[in-house]
Design goal:
By secondary structure, this protein is of the alpha/beta class. The protein is built from twelve helices and nine strands.
């Protein structure tokens, strides 16, 4: 049995889908009252209601589990009762502790790009969980993806492909290794069994290093129309991020990570190249998004 924590999210649900497509037994930890559990049940996922903030529910979820894959985060959540500290820090550390207590052999953890510094709360919490995993005694993998196309080129961060609007952090000239969530999900699935991915951090990037300005041009070419670009100055984001974090760590983390990625986030991962999994280009992603919106 493979436990997916964060099973209803963008990444977790795709991991569940891929695992079930391979005939693997999957258990999904779903918060009580979630409306998204039905879609997982339709895939054949065993649903366990629980919460990273409640240890007793994690004990139930980890019973008889051969691997834990954790993608859970409070980042971007509309539930104001969730915080980065309670979910991404305390909750993830609690999950590692419970998994270890239940002698779970394998733990796959979704982290962030190795290029990000721990000045943003989210990055700081991710690095703390990585440190604990290294000493956990479990067979662990920490995946460290660059920016997700699905998030950074979506409405959550100010892109609107219906009206042709883009939001760019900084000048938009620095290259980033854009990666699709579906490709990250495939790496997570492989990490469960691939011995090359044991006890290691794995940086993940897409097949191209493109600046945000390059990405805007690709969307313009695919859509056949110009995009209106709203640029957020990097110095402003860097200055305001620490103050915003005092009020809301999620908003502060978003601003801080935006300021950092404005200086670029190129990923060079020899191990990822060795795995040689197919990767989605930005143009392919743009064609899919614009076709869906047509």
């Amino acid at each position: 049995m493979i436990l997916v924590v964060g099973a209803t999210g963008l990444l977790g649900s795709e991991i569940c889908r891929r695992l079930r497509g391979r005939g693997r037994p999957v258990r999904g930890l779903v918060r009580p009252g979630s409306s998204r559990g039905a879609a997982l049940r339709d895939l054949g996922v065993e649903i366990v209601e629980g919460d990273l903030r409640a240890r007793e529910s994690l004990d139930v979820a980890c019973e008889g589990v051969a691997a834990v894959v954790s993608t859970a985060t409070a980042m971007g959540s509309k539930d104001r009762t969730l915080s980065l500290r309670s979910v991404d820090y305390e909750g993830q550390l609690r999950l590692v502790d419970v998994a270890r207590a239940h002698a779970v052999p394998t733990f796959v953890y979704m982290s962030v790009s190795p290029n990000l510094r721990p000045t943003a709360p989210l990055v700081r919490y991710k690095r703390a969980v990585e440190r604990v995993l290294r000493g956990s005694g479990m067979r662990w993998t920490a995946l460290q993806p660059s920016v997700f196309m699905d998030v950074w080129l979506g409405s959550q961060l100010g892109w609107d492909h219906i009206v042709g609007r883009a939001t760019v952090f900084g000048s938009g000239a620095a290259p980033l290794s854009w990666i699709a969530a579906s490709d990250v999900a495939e790496h997570a699935v492989r990490a469960i069994d691939d011995e090359r991915l044991v006890n290691i951090e794995v940086p993940l990037g897409g097949p191209e290093r493109l600046s945000p300005n390059d990405v805007v041009r690709i969307f313009e070419e695919v859509s056949g129309r110009p995009y209106r670009v709203w640029r957020l100055p990097r110095p402003m984001l860097a200055f305001l991020a620490p103050f915003a974090s005092l009020i809301d760590e999620g908003i502060g983390s978003g601003m801080g990570m935006g300021a950092q990625t404005a200086k670029g986030d190129p990923i060079d991962s020899p191990l990822q190249r060795e795995l040689a999994l197919p990767l989605t280009t930005v143009r392919q992603y743009a064609e899919r998004v614009l076709r869906r919106g047509a």
